[in-house]
């Protein structure tokens, strides 16, 4: 998974592409690269990111080079899959003649066969990447068909298996850029007459154009001499669907905040307000989800539900499944997207009575795409809970609901998680209203959802305290998180945040299971964060707190506002608003987000770009 971007037109291309690379850093940041087509050939600058350097370092390297005012450039952000991060493995990759240069997002599955074929034909392969092979394959096809670059590219891409989006240039064609798409996302736009941009996401383009085109699998765009020609892999003329790019330039900056992660944490009251705006009411019809209503009759006929996601989205999936079980009294199960193929999860299901909610911030996660294909092949309907409008997963699903939280740039997911949970609560209300909830229950449920955005302010009032707590824990290499019921998902998400941005081995454990093993970690002063909310499980949690306090643990309680007894029991308390447990997960998760953020910052890490991670994982 990587980011690709290109510009060809009448402006200096390198600064535009460089800015695009920076905007797509969320897609990968272990290496950066730029290639520019000039009269003297293709000039490439590409580097592995040094451990102690950020993007400015690369900009400075690019500025040292004379690109001869090139009007045609491509750029790349890399998240290594084939071959370690290194200068040589960074993109653009080139063929033997260095006339063909390309950037690639995806993975080529028939990599070994292609490599053997190309080596046998005398190609010199310099990098460990699968991407370089594509450049050699095009070179080979070009030699075979008398130099025609267009048919060489079409022949080559038809031999590739796997997921790939490509942006290709050729030294002998100064105004040529070829965009190819299968499996990995790619959009393009005519940013002004005869000038084009292509990118993995609209983010680099929205500054210049709002109207673009969403390239689909099996489509190619040949841009040359200021014109774009749209073709299929079978070399037939096609028309690619136009789209309007959403989002604003403002959303791509973190002005007023030191990091995107902090900005996105603080945006939650406003963004969650947008998630529910015009959708939840305290009077009939209580809930309106326009994206789901077309399939409502089908949905109401279902009695078995799956919630599927990866990473943070899987934690949200757990909460969705539990809300459905508890409020709708139906069979519901959360499954990690990567595990859908490992177990026969649909065993015994009646396809027309089963639905899978597929949950994703990016709408790109490859594991989830594969899960959807497998589920749909068995005749089961998939509905999306997705943030990125028009993304691949949104389009793969029959219907669904958007999170409406805007671009999430910080690699660790924050506002998308809380919006997923709120969306699942809305879906619970939607089905409950038609199935089993009384009018009074609907009013209560709707009021509780509506209260969520505003009550997060209570957490932000404690931000200094949370920062001080983080400072006191800065040298900890491990800590434990305990919770019960819904809050098991909260602590799994909390532990993930601490692992991702603070590199702390945070052990999440069901409070009731702690005595069966993890209690061995407890020693005097060992920090344990317990979600000790005022709900039906409170008594059991008090028992668990006493067990670890008896062994000297330092207990930080996430306690409900007004529960003074609990606040006195724990060694340090952070207060969350008094909400029912399925929704109290939201403010409790925000506490963990802030704690992880401050821990990461205090430990000196770049929380927006954690080690080895990327925002959208488009490899399976
Ligand atoms: C990556 C990200 C996680 C994210 C997961 C699922 O691993 O680093 O933060 O939760 O993908 O992403 P999605 O976009 O499908 O929600």
Automatic annotation (TrEMBL):
Its EC number is 2.6.1.16. Residues 295-437, 469-610 form the SIS domain. Keywords: Aminotransferase, Glutamine amidotransferase, Repeat, Transferase. GO terms for cellular component: cytosol. Pfam families: GATase_6, SIS. It comes from Candidatus Kerfeldbacteria bacterium CG08_land_8_20_14_0_20_43_14. GO terms for biological process: fructose 6-phosphate metabolic process; protein N-linked glycosylation; UDP-N-acetylglucosamine metabolic process. It catalyses: D-fructose 6-phosphate + L-glutamine = D-glucosamine 6-phosphate + L-glutamate. PANTHER family: GLUCOSAMINE--FRUCTOSE-6-PHOSPHATE AMINOTRANSFERASE, ISOMERIZING, GLUTAMINE--FRUCTOSE-6-PHOSPHATE TRANSAMINASE (ISOMERIZING). CDD domains: GFAT (cd00714), SIS_GlmS_GlmD_1 (cd05008), SIS_GlmS_GlmD_2 (cd05009). The keyword Repeat applies. GO terms for molecular function: carbohydrate derivative binding; glutamine-fructose-6-phosphate transaminase (isomerizing) activity. Residues 2-226 form the Glutamine amidotransferase type-2 domain. InterPro entries: GATase_2_dom (IPR017932), GFAT (IPR005855), GFAT_N (IPR047084), GlmS/AgaS_SIS (IPR035466), GlmS/FrlB_SIS (IPR035490), Ntn_hydrolases_N (IPR029055), SIS_dom (IPR001347), SIS_dom_sf (IPR046348). The keyword Membrane does not apply. This is Glutamine--fructose-6-phosphate aminotransferase [isomerizing].
């Amino acid at each position: 998974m990587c980011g690709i971007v290109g510009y060809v037109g009448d402006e200096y291309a390198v600064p535009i592409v460089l800015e695009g690379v920076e905007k797509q850093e969320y897609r990968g940041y272990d290496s950066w690269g730029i290639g520019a087509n000039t009269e003297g050939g293709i000039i490439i600058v590409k580097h592995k990111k040094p451990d102690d350097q950020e993007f400015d370092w690369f900009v400075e390297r690019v500025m040292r080079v004379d690109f001869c005012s090139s009007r045609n450039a491509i750029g790349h952000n890399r998240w290594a899959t084939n071959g370690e991060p290194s200068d040589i493995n960074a993109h653009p990759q080139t063929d033997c003649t260095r006339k063909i240069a390309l950037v690639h997002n995806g993975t080529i599955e028939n990599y070994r066969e292609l490599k053997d074929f190309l080596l046998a034909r005398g190609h010199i392969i310099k990098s460990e990447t699968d991407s370089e092979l594509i450049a050699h394959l095009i070179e080979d096809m070009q030699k075979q068909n008398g130099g025609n670059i267009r048919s060489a590219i079409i022949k080559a891409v038809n031999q590739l298996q796997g997921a790939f989006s490509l942006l290709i240039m050729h030294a002998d064609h100064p105004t040529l850029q070829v965009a190819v798409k299968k499996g990995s996302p790619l959009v393009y736009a005519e940013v002004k007459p005869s000038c084009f941009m292509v990118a993995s996401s609209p983010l680099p383009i929205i500054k210049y154009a709002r109207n673009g085109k969403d390239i689909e699998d099996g489509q190619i765009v040949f841009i040359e001499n200021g014109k774009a020609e749209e073709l299929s892999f079978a070399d037939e003329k096609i028309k690619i669907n136009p789209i309007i790019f959403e989002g604003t330039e403002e959303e791509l900056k973190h002005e007023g905040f030191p990091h995107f992660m902090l900005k996105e944490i603080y945006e939650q009251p406003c963004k969650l307000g947008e998630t529910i705006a015009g959708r939840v009411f305290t009077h009939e019809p209580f809930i309106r989800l326009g994206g789901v209503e077309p399939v409502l009759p089908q949905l109401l006929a279902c009695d078995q539900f799956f919630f599927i996601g990866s990473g943070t989205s899987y934690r949200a999936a757990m909460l969705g499944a539990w809300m459905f079980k508890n409020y709708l009294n139906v069979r519901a199960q959360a499954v990690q997207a990567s595990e859908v193929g490992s177990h026969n999860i649909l065993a015994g299901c009646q396809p027309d009575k089963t639905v899978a909610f597929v949950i994703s911030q990016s709408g790109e996660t490859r594991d989830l795409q594969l899960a959807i294909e497998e589920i749909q092949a068995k005749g089961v309907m998939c509905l999306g809970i997705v943030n990125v409008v028009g993304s691949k997963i949104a389009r793969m699903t029959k219907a669904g609901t958007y999170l409406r939280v805007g671009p999430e740039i910080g690699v660790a997911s924050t506002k998308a998680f809380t919006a997923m949970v709120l969306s699942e609560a809305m879906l619970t209300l939607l089905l409950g209203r038609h199935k089993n909830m009384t009018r009074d229950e609907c009013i209560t449920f709707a009021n509780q959802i509506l209260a969520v955005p505003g009550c997060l302010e209570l957490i932000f009032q404690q931000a200094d305290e949370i920062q001080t707590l983080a400072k006191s824990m800065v040298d900890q290499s491990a800590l434990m998180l305990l919770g019960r019921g819904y809050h098991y998902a909260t602590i799994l998400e909390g532990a993930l945040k601490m692992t991702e941005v603070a590199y702390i081995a945070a052990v999440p454990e069901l409070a009731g299971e702690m005595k069966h093993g993890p209690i061995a970690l407890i020693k005097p002063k060992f920090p344990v964060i317990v979600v000790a909310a005022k709900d039906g499980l409170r008594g059991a949690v008090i028992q668990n707190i006493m067990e670890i306090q008896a062994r000297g643990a330092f207990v930080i309680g996430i306690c409900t506002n007004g529960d003074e007894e609990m606040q006195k029991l724990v060694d340090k308390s952070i207060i969350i608003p008094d909400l029912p447990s399925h929704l109290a997960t939201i403010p409790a998760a925000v506490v963990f987000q802030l704690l992880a953020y401050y821990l990461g910052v205090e430990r000196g890490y770049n929380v927006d770009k954690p080690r080895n991670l990327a925002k959208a994982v488009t490899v399976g």
